[in-house]
Amino acid sequence: MQRNLRTVAMAAAVVSALALAGCASATPDTASGGCEPSDGPVDLTFTSWVPGMDQVVALWNEKNPDIQVEFQTGPNGNSGTYQNFFNQIKAGNAPDVGQVEYDALPSFRVQDGLENIAGCGDILAAGDQFVDWTWSQVTFGEDNAVYAIPQDSGPTAMYYRADLFEAAGIPVPTTWAEYADAAAKIKALGSYITNFPKTDVNWFAGMVWQNNGQWFENNGEDWTVDLTSPESLEVADYWQGLLDRGEVSTLASFSDEWNASFNTGQQWTWISAVWGASTIKSGAPDTSGKWAVAQMPQWNAGDDAAGNWGGSSSAVLKGSKHPYEAAQFALWLNTDPDALEMANELGGLYPASKDGANLPVFTAGQEFYGGQKIYDVFAEASAQVIPNFVWGPTMTQTYTDVSDGFGAALGGSGTLADALATGTEKTIAALKAQSIPVAE
Amino acid sequence: MSAPSLTRSSKAKGSQREPILSRSAAMLIMGVFTLYFLIPIWWLLVSSTKTQGQFTTTPALIFTPDAIPNFIDNISGLFAYNDGVFLKWILNSVLYAGAGALLGTVIASMCGYALAKYGFRGREAVFNLVLSGVLVPATALALPLFLIFSQVGLTNTFWAVFLPSIVSPFGVYLARIYAASSVPDELLEAARLDGSNEVRTFFTVATRLMAPALVTIFLFQFVAIWNNFFLPLIMLRDPSLFPVTLGLYSWNSAIGQNPELRSFVIIGAFVSIIPLIIAFLSLQRFWSGGLAAGSIK
């Protein structure tokens, strides 16, 4: 999950009422019948790139002698595994269960790469166990349909250098207006409040998400693409302002220079997802104990909205011969306390399961963050993520085109808003090129 | 008379001046390129002696005081991580590249020798067909190969990477050119008269004469298989079958979940170039000799 950050994206979204079903011209069977347990022992395959997942699978195999799962791995989704999934689906030998990030689910759905597992035992009823927005992501808002089991999520909050804010007498911002004020003061002290990451378009999408904006809609038939909604433009103009005033750096997130800027106190905050905690910890070791986490700034004082950056699901891929067992395994993988604890410890996953947030590992104070129980903040943020964000069916392309535009804007040609307009045009062209119906 | 001697003397002067100029220019260019190629390796060496925290807190190209203990820590961590899977990957790469290059060399040299020394109908057609294989990039073949191997149920097996690796159109080309020029027909005739059959003649007479070309083919093929990343990426899912390139790439793409992997990717990349360096140092004499001989003849 998180990893994909850079290359592309992750993040998640939901489709609430607007079913993707529509793209259904290319996606025939939405019926959930015909999912019965198999007779006799079953062998499944499961592909994931999360470190340590092989050990979670071993735990399952120990407990379920009749359903043995073979673990397979590869690079993260956008680095090759998604393409492998599509190749395998074509060849008829896809794994029964595969890891798919929320923002990639629509592309699998429109290419008919997912099995509907709603009829597989009690899967439909399992929705209550997951954070609402993650469940909308895997159902696409369709009735009687479940295409994957939510695995992890990336609710966003604000990491900040508590010591520097206090020493400078700058109040910790709670709104975006205060954040801009703080940015100006920090600039005057010779540092930056944060960076604007031109390549992390999924991060930017998370900011739009927090502002209750949408980039995509699907009415069950046609897709609507508009990256330039008022909410989206508000976010773009806000960051354009910070960039124009030179109050944010333009370092690439996750680069060595960027890590060093945190380590030397040149950047004071990072609006990021829950998994970012380990990123800062490993990248800025000299600042241990000086960080804290707060809810991310709000557009209106008193609001309580969070965005999301990253997260993935365990999808039953098209062609599985044992969808029932595959669905049971996927459900266990993402709800069993032992499994979730191992996935967090070894793979850094923050569970999409509601109960998962109460695991002992998430209730302890974090030394690096001055002893703060930072996961309490993220649990709160997780519940505040707006549940109906929709990802498009060609996010890799959208990310690339918007990122190119952001890069140009940072280089002084055009603005972030221009980049979004261009991204809209190119995405519509890409959908048409793939014969995905687009509403004009 | 005087005109030519003038020309000659001015030429001589020029040729005296030029060497200094061109030599220093050549040295400069070589120096720049040497730096250009060596700095990344230097960075890799220095980085593999750092702890996770030191990546961002210390200068990138300078050793830290505790470089040696860190290096030992990193190495032992690398080989211990995930039950020593890294060692498995290195051995896999050695097996794919070593056995694949050996078998590939045998096949290519037999094929090239046959094309050079036996006249048969369609010889040029066969040769041109093989030669056209040089023009098709290996990456373009990976997906079709995946679909074919899926049909016969061989994806995600050792054979999925090994079998495509033993084919070398370029090796056939080189072997034919080299056999044509370095294996005299008279010698083969003599061997036949002495009662040697064709296979024995090939292995006892022809391969010795072709040795420089064989080493060249072996090295090319070894490096090509070692560096072949796309085919294993598409074919393999089982981490115990990965070559080291794919294993490191997977780790690198999972740094987000597990930042500890960053150290391992760097030290692993450093360790993984050592077998290539060994192969080059031990075989490069043959390689340069073979290339030069082939090109002159």
TrEMBL record, chain A:
<keyword id="KW-0813">Transport</keyword>
<dbReference type="Pfam" id="PF01547">
    <property type="entry name" value="SBP_bac_1"/>
</dbReference>
<keyword id="KW-0564">Palmitate</keyword>
<dbReference type="InterPro" id="IPR006059">
    <property type="entry name" value="SBP"/>
</dbReference>
<keyword id="KW-0762">Sugar transport</keyword>
<keyword id="KW-0472">Membrane</keyword>
<keyword id="KW-1003">Cell membrane</keyword>
<dbReference type="InterPro" id="IPR050490">
    <property type="entry name" value="Bact_solute-bd_prot1"/>
</dbReference>
<keyword id="KW-0732">Signal</keyword>
<feature type="signal peptide">
    <location>
        <begin position="1"/>
        <end position="26"/>
    </location>
</feature>
<keyword id="KW-0449">Lipoprotein</keyword>
<protein>
    <submittedName>
        <fullName>Multiple sugar transport system substrate-binding protein</fullName>
    </submittedName>
</protein>
TrEMBL record, chain B:
<protein>
    <submittedName>
        <fullName>Multiple sugar transport system permease protein</fullName>
    </submittedName>
</protein>
<comment type="similarity">
    <text>Belongs to the binding-protein-dependent transport system permease family.</text>
</comment>
<feature type="transmembrane region" description="Helical">
    <location>
        <begin position="20"/>
        <end position="45"/>
    </location>
</feature>
<keyword id="KW-0812">Transmembrane</keyword>
<dbReference type="GO" id="GO:0005886">
    <property type="term" value="C:plasma membrane"/>
</dbReference>
<feature type="transmembrane region" description="Helical">
    <location>
        <begin position="158"/>
        <end position="180"/>
    </location>
</feature>
<dbReference type="Pfam" id="PF00528">
    <property type="entry name" value="BPD_transp_1"/>
</dbReference>
<keyword id="KW-0813">Transport</keyword>
<feature type="transmembrane region" description="Helical">
    <location>
        <begin position="263"/>
        <end position="283"/>
    </location>
</feature>
<keyword id="KW-0762">Sugar transport</keyword>
<dbReference type="GO" id="GO:0055085">
    <property type="term" value="P:transmembrane transport"/>
</dbReference>
<keyword id="KW-1003">Cell membrane</keyword>
<feature type="domain" description="ABC transmembrane type-1">
    <location>
        <begin position="90"/>
        <end position="282"/>
    </location>
</feature>
<feature type="transmembrane region" description="Helical">
    <location>
        <begin position="94"/>
        <end position="115"/>
    </location>
</feature>
<keyword id="KW-0472">Membrane</keyword>
<feature type="transmembrane region" description="Helical">
    <location>
        <begin position="127"/>
        <end position="152"/>
    </location>
</feature>
<keyword id="KW-1133">Transmembrane helix</keyword>
<dbReference type="InterPro" id="IPR035906">
    <property type="entry name" value="MetI-like_sf"/>
</dbReference>
<dbReference type="InterPro" id="IPR000515">
    <property type="entry name" value="MetI-like"/>
</dbReference>
